[in-house]
Amino acid sequence: MNQIERIREELIKRGLDALLISDEKNQRYAAGFAFTDGAVLVGREKAFLLTDSRYIEAAGEQAEGVEVRLFDKQHPLVMKLKEALGELGAQKIAAEDQKLSHAGFLNWEKKLGVHLEAAGDLFTGLRAVKTGEEIASMIRAQRISEAALEEVLQLLRPGMTEREAAAELVYRMLRHGGEGNSFDPIVVTGSKTSMPHGVPGDKIIQAGDFVTMDFGCLKDGYCSDMTRTVAVGSATEEMKNIYAVVLKAQLAGIKAARAGVLGKDIDHAARKVITEAGYGEYFGHGFGHCLGLDIHEPPTAGPTGNLPLPAGSVSSAEPGIYIPGRFGVRIEDVMVIREDGAEVITRAPKSELIILGKR
Asked: What would the pLDDT profile of 78-92 be if each residue is shown by its tens digit?
């Protein structure tokens, strides 16, 4: 069953005749092809992808489960959509209220001259459970990120700036086949490692510093995500101890993860380890978030995660300890949630603190 067929099943369950898809990520999910200034229209019997001359050739080669149609100045998008809706005989039509602004939703209603049902949650449920093909794409993205990390670890040294290290990660992910960044990479050193989402700047890596690298790439449109914290030259016993606590917490959270477990219970398993070690006040964010075509997708494995993680969902596992003004540690892997536990798809080493250039 392809994604169009899955969407079609949901339409029938909800008593809908057609779904208008304008969000690029949802377009890619539905038809295997993403573009701007166009739309995918899925009906009960037929589906259409409407695009312009910039994408028509690529769409014809890559899109799946849809009939590709061209719109232009003489035959604008709204006209082609109305034609397609007429062919479908659609009366009850839905759109992605969760992705469109309120004004955008109303604008589609006005242009098409129809009432649109709100059905953005349709994608929330479908996209939460990954197919084997989707997971394979995410594994490929992870391998690319890991190859980049392996090379960058050979380059990190005192005197290099955070920005230079971030640039090396981006370049090497592209070189190994990445299609772009999952998000702007976080590379911070020294006292800035206490900032979970610190921005790479001109701060220079010095001997005895931690360096935290949080990054990922896209493959087939799907995200990878990983974080590793390493030391340069040397590390104090306190640094080593905190690294060990974060690793223990991560492993506890991973052990607690399986299909049907509430996100907050997974978070609690990891948070308990950090709290009992005396660092509870220094772990402010959640244990993990799901990801896929977007780097953050529901459900979440955080303290407010009141939904169970379904089998086939893909979540990060990223506890951390951040001591303001001093340093921080985060270790992040990606795991696939299975009925009997979590399958970690990240392979980069983490079992002990890596100290680069140790003598």
From this structure: 999 999 999 999 999
Backbone angles phi, psi at 289, to 5 degrees: -140, 150
Q: Are 222 and 180 in contact (CB under 8 A)?
A: no
Helix spans in the chain (H) = 3-14, 24-31, 56-62, 77-88, 102-112, 121-128, 132-153, 162-175, 237-256, 263-276
- The residue segments making up the domain with residue 113 are 3-128
CA atoms within 13 A on the CB side of 182: 28
CA atoms within 13 A on the CB side of 37: 10
Query: 192 and 160 in one domain?
Result: yes
Q: CA distances (Å), 298 to each of 11, 129, 238, 291, 301, in order?
A: 21, 10, 35, 8, 9
- Residue-wise pLDDT tens digits, 303-345: 999 999 999 999 999 999 999 999 999 999 999 999 999 999 9
Kindly state whether residues 95 and 190 are assigned to the same domain.
Answer: no
Whether residue 160 sits in one domain with residue 87: no
φ, ψ of residue 171 in degrees (nearest 5): -60, -45
Report the C-alpha gap between 27 and 29 in whole angstroms.
Answer: 5
- Domain total for the chain? 2
Strand, helix or coil for residue 222? strand
Residue at which a domain ends, from 75, 102, 128: 128
d(CA 346, CA 15): 41
Q: Are residues 136 and 80 in the same domain?
A: no
pTM: 0.95
Residue 172, domain CATH = 3.90.230.10
